[in-house]
Amino acid sequence: MRNVSSMIRRIKLLSSLFEEIQEAETPLPPSSTLCFTELLSVITRGKVLIQEIKDASTLWGLIQLEFISNQFYVLVKEMGRALDILPLRLLNITADIREQVDLLHKQAKRAELTIDPRELQRREMLLEVMANNMMQNKKNKGYMDFGKMEELLSSIGLRTISDYDIEISKLEIEAQNQAGTGGLVVVSNINNLISLVSYSKSMIFRDGENEESKKESCSYLYNKVNDSSSSSQSMSIPDEFRCPISLDLMRDPVIVSSGHTYDRNSIAQWINSGHHTCPKSGQRLIHTALIPNYALKSLVQQWCYDNNVPLNEPNSSVSEEKSNKKNSNDAGADAVKMTAEFLVGKLATGSADTQRQAAYELRLLAKTGMDNRRIIAEVGAIPFLVTLLGSHDPRIQEHAVTAMFNLSIYDNNKVLLMSAGAVDKIVQVLEQGRTMEARENAAATIFSLSMLDDCKVQIGARPRAVPALVLLLKEGTPIGKRDAATALFNLAVYNPNKSIIVSSGAVDVLIELLMDDKASITDDALSVLALLLGCSQGLKEIRNSRELVPLLIDLLRFGSVKGKENSITLLLGLCKEETEVVARRLLANPRSVPSLQSLAAHGSLRARRKADALLRLLNRCCSQPHHSL
């Protein structure tokens, strides 16, 4: 909560600056536009993060304390870097606002990771209770101190039966969300929490609701009566109809590749600003197609009709905007070109400090829209950025490789980057980058380049490229591991690359990641393993793993839809080579057949088909008398 309050305070300080600039109505220097574009990204992500914390399970947030605090820390540091390029002296603002923004800038630069000691203490208490609960479940030992548990849950806002029910619902949703990323350990921990809260609820409230709960029920009924009389004056939009970005009614809901739904205008602005991740989950978008969510749109339309809410927002200035759009676009393109030429000149002739600043500004400029990426490449930035990849300055290298990643999102630039000899330099950064962020963005660049078939061939032919990706799988942060896994997946689509990936030790690392609750790439790891099954070396390595089959059986129960499909693919592929050996290991596990039967009945079409095939295969093995099974 301290991080949330601090972020809100910083944004309020910035809004004072924005209001003054709006009132001044004077032209802005180009570097301030870059700064405000980056601040827009930071504030949007901060808004999404705060909303996620509000909507998510409080107990799971306590478990994820360091991870959530670090997300705020990263946003504050990015805010500080954006303010580095804000020319305060050139802005028409009062001295008071200038001093406030300058102070905010200094504080952001000095900011450190903040974790509230009281929250740490609550988390330690929760972990202790969870450990006792697990011991009690496994060995019928241990004692749960309900007084301590009630005190803990009350301290985080769970005081009534309704609070407990809402928390259990949020934990169940979190278990579903984590099925494809967090792995079995995370899902197991969440299930432990659900068990703990449910048990505590039954014990704490076994004598009936306490007075506070009764008061809440009475208050709820009273409010319902009042709401029915004043609904025409104040309309509350259901949460499921609100866009996660704007928090307004989704009049045109669309689904992105991560599976989340947003209002078309909000997500289109997010993508056109150069972002390549889902705002809600942080997952990289494998494509930017916006698929209409007709089912939700129908529900929204019905709700609007029932509540007399206009479906289309009135916009009196549409025709005027259309008439001015072409002139505005032309002027914007000219401004971008002038800025890009100026920055490329700094890259070519400037000092190290000048190059660092110019590389950062190009990185931001390339982040915001396809036209910007095209123009930056046209003015000749790519060769200079390739040269800067070998810089001894960690920040110059990081900004250069990130700028190249942003440029590579535009397909024509992929060809230009390959022609400029960027791959060898990018692989060098991936292998020996001076910061982890530089290495991870190098992996993301390889992922982006490998979208083209020719690039898959050329990158796979580099002897150090695949081993460097596998190394990042071991050493990277969760984001870096995901970038490396998705890059390996793209490369493995080209069959000759599969044996290279296997010989680089990827199989063992990927199987270890399935057991790593902090890696958060379960689905990505399974996807790569399923592809590697298609080559003889990959099949041999996967078959030699003793841990994989039990993991896959558990993933059939707890995995995401995609995870279940890939798990059944791997099991079926293993059975085709060594049917009796794998069948024995499957039948020895009492959870395998029920999991397969459940999947055959309720899974996706692909999963049902493969589960049926595997069940038939196991049935044949059992029915043949000469088999030891």
UniProtKB/TrEMBL annotation:
What's a BP term from Gene Ontology annotated to this protein? protein ubiquitination
Question: What keywords would UniProt list here?
Answer: Repeat, Transferase, Ubl conjugation pathway
- Which Enzyme Commission numbers does its entry carry? 2.3.2.27
Sorted alphabetically, which CDD domains does this protein's record hold? RING-Ubox_PUB
Tell me the superkingdom of the source.
Eukaryota
Indicate the segments forming the U-box domain, all copies.
236-310
GO molecular function term, any single one: ubiquitin protein ligase activity
Pathway per the UniProt entry: Protein modification; protein ubiquitination
Q: What is this protein called?
A: RING-type E3 ubiquitin transferase
